[in-house]
Amino acid sequence: MSKVLLAGESWVSDVTDHKGFDPFPHTQVHIGCEKLLEVLRNNGHEVTHLKSHDVSTDFPFSIDELNEYAVVILSDVGANSLLLPPQVFEEGKKTPNRLKVIRDWVRQGGGLLMAGGYLSFQGFQAKANYAGTPVEEALPVSIFHWDDRVETPEGAKPQLSATAHTITEDLDEYWPDLLGYQLLTPKDGSEVLATINDDPLLITTDFGEGRSVAFASDISPHWAPEEFMAWNGYGKLFNNIINWLS
Questions:
Q1: Number of neighbours of residue 69 by Cβ within 10 angstroms
Q2: What is the mean pLDDT of residues 95-100?
Q3: What is d(CA 87, CA 71) in angstroms, rounded to the nearest whole number?
Q4: For a pLDDT cut of 70, what percent of the chain falls above it?
Q5: Up-side HSE of residue 228: CA atoms within 13 Å toward CB?
Q6: What's the CA gap between 199 and 165, in Å, rounded?
Q7: Domains of the chain (ranges plus CATH)?
Q8: What distances in angstroms separate CA 84 from CA 145, 164, 193, 232, one per listed residue?
Q9: Torsion angles phi and psi, residue 41, rounded to 5
Q10: In the beta sheet, which residues pair with residue 49?
Q11: Torsions phi, psi for 212 (to 5 deg)
Q12: Whole-angstrom Cα Rg for the chain
């Protein structure tokens, strides 16, 4: 099976509760990808999870370091976390541009998955900011330069396209509802394997010697509700994506 690096899918909440006269501040780290880690590891993959607040310091800076992995997943972590390590932001020193490193690693044979969320693709208020970057070059989609979210709180049902592919083999034609997604434009030569509201949801492409996948919705709440993650196709879908990318 494959060695996988999953970057992102965590956040830190800084909350102050007010109990009458007295405030009570507290913080908590939340891990959004626990279910995905479980299903990938149960399928034999060796997954390293790099929490969002560790990405700026610990994400690989070179192709050689990335070559430790067959697949990289970027999920809900913005471009700034890769562009602004402490050496740059605090010390004013040069470092490799990790967006270029990711692109070049995919071109040389790596597998990249970007999953949707508020800090994926362009994201909430365009803060993820991958549009126009080297990572976008490696993806099967073009990214808008503005907030690209489509919120569907009423639920929207994904549907397989007519394109046969090993990733979607044996999956249901219709999937449980999702509560939002990114609006993306498939590039020429890419394949759209599933749609949502007639918009592309699951898109693949070859890039040089490597491969990439865009999944336009979330792998965890809130866009991926419990019904989606409990669906028997959830683990099969993401296991198939990893197998195809590697």
A1: 21
A2: 98
A3: 26
A4: 100
A5: 23
A6: 18
A7: 3-9+25-245 (3.40.50.880)
A8: 20, 40, 34, 39
A9: -70, -35
A10: 6
A11: -145, 155
A12: 18
Please state, in angstroms and rounded to a whole number, the distance separating the CA atoms of residues 139 and 190: 9
Q: Which residue bears the tokens 């009570």? A: 24
Q: Quick one: three-class SS letters along the chain? A: CCEEEEEECEEEEEEEEEECCEEEEEEEEEECCHHHHHHHHHCCCEEEEECHHHHHHHCCCCHHHHCCCCEEEEECCCHHHHHCCHHHHCCCCCCCCHHHHHHHHHHCCCEEEEECCCCCCCCHHHCCCCCCCHHHHHCCEECCCCCCEEEEEEEECEEECCCCCCCCCCCCCECCCEEEEECCEECCCCEEEEEECCEEEEEEEEECCEEEEEECCCCCCCCCCHHHHHCHHHHHHHHHHHHHHC
How many Å apart are CA 59 and CA 71, to the nearest integer?
Answer: 13
10-28 pLDDT tens trace:
999 999 999 999 999 999 9
CA-wise closest residue to 214 among 224, 205, 203, 198 = 203
pLDDT value for 66: 98
Task: State pTM to two decimals.
Answer: 0.96
pLDDT digits (tens, 9 = 90+) for 136-162: 999 999 999 999 999 999 999 999 999
Residue 1: predicted pLDDT? 83
d(CA 65, CA 218): 27
How far, in whole angstroms, is CA 139 from its chain's centroid?
A: 11
Tell me the average pLDDT of the chain: 97
Q: Can you give the pLDDT at residue 132?
A: 98
Residue type for 60, please?
P
Amino acid occupying residue 27: T
